[in-house]
Amino acid sequence: MSRRASLLALVAVLVRTAGALMVRVVDSDSARDLQMAGLIGQGRFADALRLPTPTPPLHPFLTALLDLPVGNLLFAGVAVSVLLGGLAVLPLYAMARRVWEERIATTAGLLYALLPAIVDLHVEAMTEGTFMFFFLGAMALGWKALEEQSWEQTVVTAACAALAWLSRPEGIYLLPLFVLASVLRFSRFSPLALGIFAVVWTVLAMPYLSFIHAETGHWRPTLSAIPTIYTDYFSGKGNPALALQDYSEYRAVARHGVLLGGGGHLLSNFFGKVLFYALGPFLLLGLVEPRPSTGQRPLLIYGWIAAAGYLIPIALSFVVSAPFSHRFLVVPAALLLPTVAAGLARAADRTRRKEALPLFVGALCLVMAVRDLRPRRTDKLGAKEAGLAVLEALGPGKRVYSSLRALEFYARSEHADEGVQADAVAFCMPELRDSDQPLLQSLERQARLLGEFPSPPRRGVLPVRVYIRKQPR
Prior knowledge:
- This protein is mainly α.
- It has two domains: 3-372, no CATH class; 378-469, no CATH class.
- Helices cover 66% and strands 5% of the residues.
């Protein structure tokens, strides 16, 4: 590993560490992963895997392992995410350096280290940092293994691919991607590499695959019901009610249609939220004028196809009314950052000034760093205070029903799927839905109001109202 690559990894980890210190309240998905880690630490593996919303177990498992010496579940979960998310710059840098040259690879590494959409996910105790480390690592190692015809590296590639799938269901994409790499780098070794990859991946994935089969009755890549939405739609059994849900992506499709509404929503999220607005033009320039090094066009095509293939199911989500989040776009954006860096280099070359590229990149990094270090989720402090109040009133281990998973984490509680099963129920009042009104009215008659938090109310902080059962269950 070169000195420059080591410095990029150090910068990426330090930026994420600093960003993590600015998180005021854990994210909902972080709370779920930490609840999973807590259950794994208690030996309740099946309960952890069944926890809504179903998530692969690798990040919670690593969190539980690190918690053993550390003794702080939140610190352990964030540390795993920060470290692996930061180190994921290494395979990205390696692929960019192979396709282009040192300055473009360094630029891509800096963009990855500081891009706010990526940093926002890696400063949380969530799966994304772990997933990106193994996903990008499997892509880089897989290409290198085929290039050097190394069975040892093929074994490591398959292991990384399995670990990526054990981090997020999208890790399954690495199977067709390795087949694609075998075609683009075809040799007499390719069939053997495919066989080694298939065997190693299957052996490592089988325990979780078997659990999914036992729970669902089907061999499928995830416990989540999302793949069923796709299969039902294309088999003619789609559920029209899904498109009526009150989320921005469904509203966009309802108002403007799939092409304009869905496509516009997707592009605005990709070029706005994820690529930080300013990087979009450079991505387009890099796509038009990539100019890879001699003989490296296949690796460039490999990265582009990986990004495009990753985007296809996301784009189809607007057709089938599956859930969408800008977070889903982060991995394809990361794969395209070397192309963005190439576009920056082409723009700088046109100025005919050597200092143009460092100035461009420096200005972008400065602006991104300011955003990376902003306080996060100060508006959710009410959920934290409410959770601590529930913990004080009822003690740990109680069942809490709320859309605020962060509240459950701070209450050290277990998740309740329904309000009638819960010892405490919490509502974020500005986000209260019509479907919650009957439960709220019932609680006002039959439960005790613990309070509304924060107390006293603070400007800019969403109020959270908590009810507890008069006779805790």
